[in-house]
Write a structure and sequence with these properties.
- The protein is mainly beta.
- It has a single domain, classed as Gamma-glutamyl cyclotransferase-like (Hypothetical upf0131 protein ytfp, Roll).
- Helix content is about 10%, strand content about 40%.
- Strand 4 and strand 5 form a beta hairpin.
- The radius of gyration is 13 Å and the shape is globular.
Length: about 120
């Protein structure tokens, strides 16, 4: 299974160790809106480019990511993030891939939007 990460799970950031046993497939982007939630970002539906990384993962890694993201498969309405399938466009080959990613499940303050869609650039500014 493939997963797209756009925040603290990316290489070089706070939670990168969660993906150490996974295969990095490259960088890419998805459509959405990205928000600064303090210590991590949140993704909502939208039409901006959101930049991140694509990985091939196994089931134990997916279950660990669900824990990190506060996603409850049996109770999505009580989840901090909801995992959904999205289309990822890779930067290198311009191919499209279907991957899972996590959408923030709580109300959001529009003033916290990261307009560049690039969390790494946002925290390094």
């Amino acid at each position: 299974m493939k997963v797209f990460v756009y925040g603290t799970l990316m290489s070089g950031l706070q939670r990168e160790e969660a993906l150490f046993n996974s295969q990095f497939l490259g960088t890419g982007h998805i459509d959405g809106n990205l928000y600064d939630l303090g210590n991590y970002p949140g993704l909502k539906d939208g039409h901006s480019k959101i930049f991140g990384e694509l990985y091939e993962i196994n089931l134990p890694t997916l279950e660990y990511l669900d824990q990190i993201e506060g996603y409850f498969v049996d109770q999505p309405e009580k989840s901090l993030y909801i995992r959904r399938a999205i289309t990822v466009k890779k930067e290198t080959d311009k191919e499209s891939y279907i991957a899972e990613t996590y959408f923030y499940n709580l109300p959001i303050d529009e003033s916290t939007r990261i307009v560049t869609g690039d969390y790494r650039a946002f925290i390094n500014q």
